[in-house]
Design goal:
- The complex is a heterodimer of chains A (381) and B (456).
- By secondary structure, chain A is α+β, with helices and mostly antiparallel strands.
- Chain A has 16 helices and seven strands.
- A seven-stranded antiparallel sheet of chain A has the order 1-3-4-5-6-7-2, with helices on one face.
- Helices cover 33% and strands 19% of the residues of chain B.
- The longest helix of chain B has 22 residues.
- Chain B is globular, with a radius of gyration of 26 Å.
- In chain B, 49% of the residues are buried.
- Classes of the chains: A alpha+beta (381), B alpha/beta (456).
């Protein structure tokens, strides 16, 4: 992702006397709790080709004393016009280091206005903050021209509330449709991609831990999707991942399971946790658990035994997945193969075939098992 | 030496004279007997007719339950609307932050997503009025391959290019005659599952089916490329489009929003009135209409500034169909049942989608109230008066508005798995599906990962 960011032409480290916004004091400012609670210590300016023809081409990265990116901001200056009269939209927009929306503020003396240049009310600022927080807003599904039914629809026009599509009216500030639209598209346009590219170059366990311990699922998933870059993990990070595997949010649980690395799975204690998840967890995660166990060089014999003991209670597809795990790991212990061979006589032909195929693959020496295999072949053919 | 020459010349003459009587066969060639239809009779426990969204899941489930299963599909690949139709964004599996449809359908979708490194939607963020945000984009062709692989793994005998022409109930089994390329097959099956989407097998078997005087339009899925949407003068394009519509050269009902068409670069934007996949003739008409409509639009677009280089990046082989026939089932799911989230005693699956009826004016989805998750009773999958017969998919017994929501892919997958289980248990116990103890159905569904509604 960093490749898409043009070469850094200059890098300015500005002391924190320079106001970063989310911690500064401004009259008009609307923010969520920042994802990273650490105070910003310095700001680095990155020239970025945003190609959205808005504002300047600088993305400011605020970093903590530990070197963790804590927020990003852009200074936006663009024209919003109505009836041939234009005024400057002067605003500073803030993102979390994962590219998610953080908030906005207006420079001293500036305010947002609607048609007739009426200033936004407190309620409208709140509504705008809510609209900009909605990453799934329908504003993302339409061009501005489509939001304006009939009549004039040139870009720059802001007084289109009466002509805005009915279904979209809830998602814009009346009299400031264009302002709302432009701001939403800046927040969710190319900027988040540029931000995450920069963040990943400073991605660390400390940052990952802080976000994973937070409550924003969207940001937790972002971290989990990028976590392999930090492998091998510390025990602390592995512990947090296991906590999330049991989260009620299935997306989060699945991504956490996916993020576990080979080193974590090597530990017998972690394999036992995975076994518990297989037995008691959501059905949707069971196959992923077995696939994760495949990462272990040598799965704990106790785990293997437990899985084999479970076989008679499982459906054929799950039995097949466990047999696949045993085959991949070359498990050939006599007692294991013996137990599995008992399923050759299963009344479910799908299951007995899975077992037969497995035994063929393992080519056991045991004469009794060979006899059972021959008997199976006779019956099934 | 002279003798040798004479002998060789005679041999050549012989070959020439023989060659005059009949053509010469080259090395490895042989004469084929006259074309004959291969007729045979085969038996199975369960026959699934239709290898689309629901049929694939029903067949895999029946196979995994240990039943001998045949899957008849009249096309060349599995997956139906999801693959051949190109509507490769099945949904919706989650409702109000929780998974409501799992099992084999979700297993397939999940594997397709993983193998293509696609993202799953973050369903913890409510979709609001944009329910499609919770649909899962999959690679359609990959999905088709995975579906086929899972069918084969489950021991399902897949028969492509075949369609039933006669269905009779004899000696507690269904005798189904299918025809295909050079084949005429009699399949004797203890249980029959109609997953044609059109209640086609149900109708041939003699049970009642119904349809609306006017059905929802179909859609030919395609992808456009060769232009920069952000640089287009949409106002001018809208005006030009309106002119063509007024002249009658373009049909507004086929492309309701030209801006939408261009913004989405094709996709699910076209409406083909009366699209019906029930017979070869009606489906041919739907396909031709879809392609003719797209060609006209393409020619028009290429006359416009900024769109001169517009081209078709991809196009599906078939016009996907939303609505044809529904069965007259033991129970008909009503809109009231659907929007109130009625949990039936014999509910086998959830369904989650807005009431979504497409017409000449487009579609304005009617979203479910927060917390509502409708359910599908087993009785809605059983045609009235039938034995050993089930349906799954969009031809589920339902009124039109309920059907406009039930018809979507995740719901059809849930129904498919339920039908596969009910048929398997009926086949094992020698009963008709309605007589199988419901607790057995629930247990097998749960054992196979399906999510079965439960009255609290």
């Amino acid at each position: 992702m960093l490749k898409s960011v043009p070469a850094i032409l200059f890098l300015v480290i500005v002391p924190m006397l320079f106001v970063t916004g989310f911690s500064g004091k401004k009259d008009i400012r609307y923010f969520h709790e920042p994802l990273i609670s650490k105070p910003p210590d310095s700001v680095i300016a990155f020239p970025v080709a945003f190609q959205d023809s808005i504002g300047d081409d600088t993305l400011y990265q605020s970093i903590s004393t530990e070197g963790i990116p804590v927020a990003y901001h852009r200074k936006i200056r663009t024209s919003v016009c109505f009836d041939g009269l234009c005024r400057l939209l002067d605003i500073v927009l803030y993102w979390n280091p994962t590219g998610s929306y953080l908030g906005f503020e207006l420079p001293d003396g500036e305010f947002l206005s609607k048609a007739e240049h009426d200033p936004f009310t407190e309620k409208e600022y709140q509504k705008l903050h809510g609209i900009l927080s909605d990453s799934l807003s329908p504003l993302g599904d339409y061009s501005f021209a489509e939001l304006v039914s009939g009549g004039e629809n040139a870009e720059g026009v802001d007084a289109v509330s009466s002509a805005t599509l009915t279904e979209i009216q809830h998602y814009v500030i009346p009299g400031a449709a264009y302002t709302t639209y432009r701001l939403w598209h800046i927040f969710y346009g190319i900027t988040p991609e540029k931000i995450t590219g920069l963040t990943l170059s400073k991605f660390s366990e400390a940052m990952a831990l802080e976000i994973l311990r937070g409550s924003s699922v969207r940001d937790q998933i972002w971290v989990l999707n990028n976590l392999q870059k930090l492998s091998p993990y510390s025990d602390e990070l592995t512990g947090v991942i296991f906590d999330l595997i049991h989260h009620t949010n299935l997306n989060l649980a699945e991504r956490s399971l996916n993020a576990l690395d080979r080193q974590a799975v090597e530990h017998s204690a972690n394999q036992k946790k995975l076994l518990a998840l297989f037995v008691h967890g959501e059905y949707t995660l069971k196959k992923a658990v077995l696939n994760k166990l495949k990462l272990a060089e040598q799965p704990d014999p106790e785990i293997i035994q437990a899985l084999v003991d479970l076989l008679p209670s499982l459906n054929g597809d799950m039995i097949g997945s466990i047999l696949d795990l045993l085959a991949v790991k070359g498990i050939r212990e006599e007692n294991v193969i013996q137990k599995i061979s008992l399923l050759l006589n299963h009344e479910n032909r799908f299951i007995s075939k899975k077992v037969y195929d497995f035994l063929v693959k393992m080519n056991p020496d045991n004469a009794e098992i060979k006899r059972k295999m021959e008997a199976y072949l006779k019956v099934s053919s | 030496m002279e003798k040798m020459k004479r002998r060789s010349a005679l041999a050549t003459l012989g070959t020439i004279s023989f060659g005059m009587a009949s053509p010469v066969l080259g090395k490895g060639e042989y004469w084929q007997d006259p074309y004959k239809i291969i007729k045979k009779t085969i038996t199975t426990d369960i026959l699934v007719v239709g290898g689309g969204t629901a049929g694939v899941i029903a067949a895999i489930q029946a196979g995994r339950a240990g039943r001998k299963t045949i899957l008849v599909e009249n096309g060349s690949q599995l997956g139906g609307v999801t693959t051949t139709g190109g509507v490769n964004f099945p949904g919706i599996f989650f409702a109000w932050g929780k998974q409501v449809i799992g099992g084999i359908g979700w297993e397939l979708v999940q594997e397709a997503v993983q193998m293509n490194d696609d993202p799953l939607p973050n369903v913890s963020i409510p979709h609001g009025r944009q329910h499609w945000r919770h649909q899962v984009r999959v690679n359609g062709q990959l999905y088709a391959m995975l579906a086929e692989e899972k069918c084969l793994d489950a021991g399902v005998n897949i028969r492509f290019y075949e369609t039933p022409v006669a269905i009779r109930f004899r000696k507690n089994s269904w005798e189904v005659t299918t025809v295909g390329k050079g084949t005429e097959t009699t399949i004797i099956a203890n249980q029959l599952i109609d997953c044609t989407g059109n209640a086609f097998a149900t109708s041939i078997a003699g049970f009642n089916v119904l349809r609306e005087a006017e059905t929802q339009p179909g859609t030919l899925m395609f992808r456009l490329e060769g232009y920069d949407f952000d640089k287009l003068d949409l106002k001018m394009i809208e005006a030009k489009y309106a002119e063509e519509v007024k002249k009658g050269t373009l049909n507004k009902k086929e492309f309701l929003s030209i801006s939408g068409l261009l913004r989405n670069k094709g996709d699910n934007v076209q409406h083909i009135a009366g699209a019906d996949s029930t017979t070869s003739e009606t489906h041919t008409v739907a396909n031709i209409k879809g392609r003719t409509s797209l060609l006209k639009m393409l020619r028009f677009l290429r006359t416009l500034p900024g769109l001169e280089k517009t081209k078709v990046g991809d196009i599906q082989n078939e016009t996907a169909v939303r609505e044809t026939y529904r069965i007259d089932g033991q129970y008909q799911i009503t809109k009231e049942d659907y929007v109130t989230g009625k949990i039936f005693d014999d509910a086998v699956s959830y369904s989650y989608y807005p009431i979504d009826l497409h017409d000449d004016n487009g579609v304005i989805p009617d979203h479910l109230l927060e917390g509502v998750v409708p359910t599908v009773p087993l009785r809605a999958l059983i045609p009235k008066g039938s034995r050993n017969f089930l349906v799954a998919g969009r031809c589920v017994s339902s009124d039109r508005l309920a059907n406009s929501a039930l018809r979507v892919q995740a719901s059809c997958m849930g129904m498919g798995q339920a039908a596969g289980v009910a048929a398997a248990l009926a086949s094992i116990s020698g009963k008709t599906p309605a007589d199988v103890p419901f607790e057995d159905v629930r247990k097998m569904l749960t054992d196979h990962g399906a999510i079965v509604p439960l009255k609290s």
